[in-house]
User: Which sequence fits this backbone?
């Protein structure tokens, strides 16, 4: 059994984006002295769109941001992000502190509080310490700079072991750069994750909004660490138009945004709490895409499957069993299962027609010891398909989450 | 963080039941030499009823037994139970081996194969070794005796750490005795668990069937270890009438069967894979019972909640978050949460109106270090309620399931 936490081989480089400045610092929300607050500001108003947790228990900053981005004429100048406190389950007082946070930022930028978005992550129920926030915001306002992205990415980490940032430049000449965090409480349809993506493209709000939803379907909505869904999940995209380049090729923008979101989403799974393996889970041949998604998600959250991934045990029976109780209709006699390479190629077929093949067990075990590989479960029923990126469930996951607050 | 696996304080004593004889032995299905096969026989035909996994991937013995107990005139003389191989995902060959197993038993008892039920548990996909089965059945046929229950209970263990058997005697004078196994892959609505319960009462099949379903709703369908649902789950009840006592008080029979099933089901959770804590999870004030069950189940399967239980961390935010994404409708502002004693009494209120109370954190931590306690989540919406028994998610769970087959 591997006890090595998964290394991220991807070098997440970044580009500055015209008109945006960022910084990260320590304001005292994290008792251990780590950086815990980040600021992203634009020198001009941005189009802003967002997607948010579907959890019915929503944190104060989620409720606050949702109201702002819901306005068709929303203009945003800054995003402030704190860790250490999720400001969730904090009632009207929590909402008041979120508003006060926006006011503090607005005072430094010289805009209205309604032009500032607020993201919080950390322990649920803890009141946001406004003395810390005020100190942090003042510090950050004096530190923001065009190449401050690595500091911002580092300051929003919680149980993450490394900062996550990425950039995409486009043939049309504009740039997208994003930061994200999230390592546990990760489920499809958002998770304990935050992401802020900015671009200097000139783009209509309606196009931006549609592009974000499509990109999220192919990235953030495809990841599972532990299946828990948080109160604070938020992905924001800000477009300030500072490049002067108007997006003419909307498909090109969609591709760039999807690529960026995919890189960031995969980085979350690679840094999943205690993860030692990154696994691409392809479900094909389902009655429809929805059924494929249901099955893929059930496999990805199964503790028995995830511990078998950890042990590198080709215990395909657990995968078939998870598919069988997912709620989606399957035919046990038409199931086929393959181990895939990191590139998606089929390496070893484990199951055909619902029964085990005469596969090479030592080879299968060796394959599963690798840090990155995949599985394909074909249901043999139709054309429905789904892809989920997930990780294993290790001793380290239990250690991290048995000790989170203490 | 406690690393002590939960001890079962309950002494599971048993009574012999008139007309039934049992035994357990080693036939070679388990490479480590542990006992791996058990036989229960009745000296006369029994009424037989059963409930089975709802997993669409059903093991051969499940399909076989379902067909038998579905017949209104079903008469059963024996139950053979093996571990080491689940005989699931084994196709028509698997079904043939189940039938052959029944034939072997029938030959020793002197009945028809259709009067023998077969239960299997263990690794999925492994063909059942019929040489082992034949040897084991021959040995068992020579060993069965009225007080063989502890041996039978021990022989059906897989990752269980101790045998699980219990008895109830009734005012009317008949007896019920049952054995069960199951430690992982445990979810509501059956799990990787098998149970065989026998009684010497004279009882109509229709009454017995209804009583089993009600008893299971209050026992086996209330337990969660890891939320996985197996291909082999089966609970059987056999009534041979050997006491000569006809059940007149049907409510009394129901109460006795429910008590027995509850004892056995709780024993499974107390012996849950790696379990260090036994937790009773009460959800009250839901819109209806179905919503309460959905929420209770989501809390019970949440890895973040279960690791917080393991660490003894009163991280109530994770419980509220799990309720919020369960799919059942809740009002975040009317949630209340208590830590309960092992007797169900309220000890510490953690949340009121969706916000944390000013509770005594060290006292809450100390309470959660105990081996047995509960939580109550009241939704403040209606009269719906549900009760689930569950355990924590420990390092040992990961060790057990990362290594199961190797």
Assistant:
């Amino acid at each position: 059994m591997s006890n090595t936490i998964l290394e991220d081989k991807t070098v997440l480089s970044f580009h500055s984006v015209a008109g945006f400045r960022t910084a990260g610092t320590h304001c005292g929300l994290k008792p251990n002295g780590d950086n815990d607050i980040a600021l992203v500001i634009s020198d001009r108003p941005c189009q802003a769109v967002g997607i948010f947790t579907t959890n019915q228990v929503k944190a104060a900053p989620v409720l606050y941001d949702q109201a702002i981005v819901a306005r068709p004429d929303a203009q945003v100048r800054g995003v402030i992000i704190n860790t250490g406190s999720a400001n969730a389950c904090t009632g009207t007082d929590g909402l008041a502190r979120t508003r006060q946070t926006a006011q503090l930022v607005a005072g430094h930028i010289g805009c209205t509080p309604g032009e500032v978005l607020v993201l919080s992550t950390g322990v649920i129920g803890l009141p946001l310490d406004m003395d810390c926030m005020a100190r942090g915001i003042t510090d950050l306002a004096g530190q923001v700079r065009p190449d401050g992205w690595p500091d911002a990415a580092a300051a929003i980490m919680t149980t993450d072991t490394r900062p996550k940032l990425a950039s995409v430049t486009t043939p049309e000449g504009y740039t997208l750069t994003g930061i994200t965090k999230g390592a546990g409480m990760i489920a499809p349809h958002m998770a304990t994750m935050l992401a802020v993506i900015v671009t200097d493209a000139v783009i209509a709000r309606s196009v931006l909004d549609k592009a974000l939803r499509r990109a999220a379907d192919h990235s953030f909505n495809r990841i599972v660490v532990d299946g828990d869904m948080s109160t604070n999940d938020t992905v924001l995209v800000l477009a300030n138009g500072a490049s002067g380049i108007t997006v003419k090729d909307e498909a090109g923008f969609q591709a760039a945004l999807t690529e960026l979101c995919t890189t960031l989403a995969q980085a979350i799974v690679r840094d999943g709490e205690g993860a030692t393996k990154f696994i691409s889970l392809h479900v094909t041949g389902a009655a429809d895409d929805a059924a494929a998604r249901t099955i893929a998600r059930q496999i990805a959250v199964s503790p028995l499957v995830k511990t078998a991934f950890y042990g590198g045990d080709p215990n395909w029976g657990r995968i078939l069993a998870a598919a069988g109780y997912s709620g989606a209709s399957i035919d046990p006699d038409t199931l086929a299962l393959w181990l895939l390479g990191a590139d998606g190629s089929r390496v070893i077929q484990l199951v055909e027609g619902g029964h085990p093949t005469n596969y090479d067990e030592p080879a299968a075990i060796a394959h599963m010891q690798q840090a990155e590989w995949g599985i394909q479960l074909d249901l043999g029923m139709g054309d429905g398909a789904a892809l989920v990126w997930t990780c294993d469930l290790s001793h380290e996951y239990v250690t991290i989450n048995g000790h989170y607050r203490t």
Observations:
- Chain B touches chain A through 65 residues (CB under 8 Å).
- The radius of gyration of chain B is 22 Å.
- Chain B is about 30% helix and 25% strand.
- The CA atoms of residues 210 and 254 of chain B lie 9 Å apart.
